[in-house]
Write the structure tokens for this entry.
Amino acid sequence: MTPPDRVDGGQPTVQAACPQIRDLPGRPRTGMRPGRVRLNLAGGAKDRLALVLMAVYAVRPKQVAEILLDDLDRSTGRLRIRRPNRLDHVICLDEFALRLVKEWLAERHHRWPLSTNPYLIVSPLTALHIERPAVGIANFSSLRDRIGINFTQLRQDRLLDEARETAAPVRLMRLFGITSHTAIHYVRTAYSERFTIDPTQA
């Protein structure tokens, strides 16, 4: 087993081969299911980036809000997702997601050039706040209303979608940083007629 690498600050992270989001038949490059979530409903650069992180990479809203600028390595496309009491999860952003990152960072710097807030996502309230806080998840409320689906359902849909396409619990674990129990649950839900035994033992 590959030992955890250490990223800035000495925090151990799972740093095995970083799986990529695949282009799948009938699904846009963003990974979002046609007719389910439309990126153009998201609005500005910040919300488009947040939506892709949630809908494609299954990152929870609170985790999106707590991503630090230092968690992003644009040269490798790696993004660290912090998880209290667990190893951090590292995701590999594709070119589309990296382009959204670039757009948001350019807008962020243009609007608040003097901001020292350490978080990737900022708002008019937090960008120049003396305490440099993270945004609250309520910051994404208007995004949720525009896309017409709550973020929990969005995450569940994404996991189930990948389970249907791959039927591979290990891939789900590596791609989304979920437990074996959760990965097997989604594969069994997607193919309830196929798996009468643990699919990891098949």
